[in-house]
Amino acid sequence: MLEKFFDYLTHERKYAAHTITSYKNDLQGFEKFIKEEFDLDDLSQVHYSFIRNWILQLSKNGLSNLSINRKISSLKTFYKFLQKVGSIDKNPLVGHKSLKVQKKIQVPFSRKEIQEVIDGLDGDDFESLRNKAMIEVFYSTGIRRAELIGIKLSDVNLEDKTIRILGKRNKERFVPLLNSVEKSLSDYLKVRDTVAKDKHLFVTAKGNKIYETLVYRVINSYFSLASSKQKKSPHILRHSFATHLLNEGANLNSVKELLGHSSLASTQVYTKNSLETLKQMYNQAHPRSNKN
Predict the structure, then answer these.
(1) Does pLDDT of 78 surpass 60?
(2) How many domains does the chain divide into?
(3) Which of 18, 20, 66, 75 has the highest CB neighbour number within 10 Å of its CB?
């Protein structure tokens, strides 16, 4: 039944490969647990008490509530699938409540920090030109790491200054390119063609498609030179893109479309930083504010 479930995620739900890998790891881990603890091979025979025991074990092993909730989310999707195909009558997780998680505020890079990184991107070798194009594409479009990795040469239209992005569940959108980014991409493409025949836009020095850890290392290494913030990742660049647009007065719906969100609720998390900036400006400018 697990293989049918993974086929369902791949072909019907159109989940990305790395997402399906996470589901596999979660479900196989739970399957191993109930086999060892309850001598049970059939996931359709699971009771909520088994799941509660798994949660306790995960917690004892030091897993955070956030990570546990993600694993339980995988189980929920699986049991909803079993209900859909008629393998079970009742979802064992129907009354489950997620563990409480302390929300962490994602602190975006400042405009000064980003400008400092971009100003320092001045090499003319393959990796320098690739990294410059990569960072500028990230910050000027707000795309996700997996989306950047998946960009193909055929998705880039330098004449129209647009990139076709294939987002979550294969949802397609087009994002515009600034003139400066178009130039960085043009410079990179000139050297890229000398090392790669791969169909993807961003490749390694050996001509292969780039991968997640490489992208993270690039962003982390450059921004470590300009920022003392704890988190320096591709997601923080995406967060910075959205926050800076909203700070400059961009419409929330427009930012939602650029980010590829399916609902405004996902985009509204970025308004917190915009509101904090507005509060600071208000307190500094209003004649009755207590500036001391």
Answers:
(1) yes
(2) 2
(3) 75
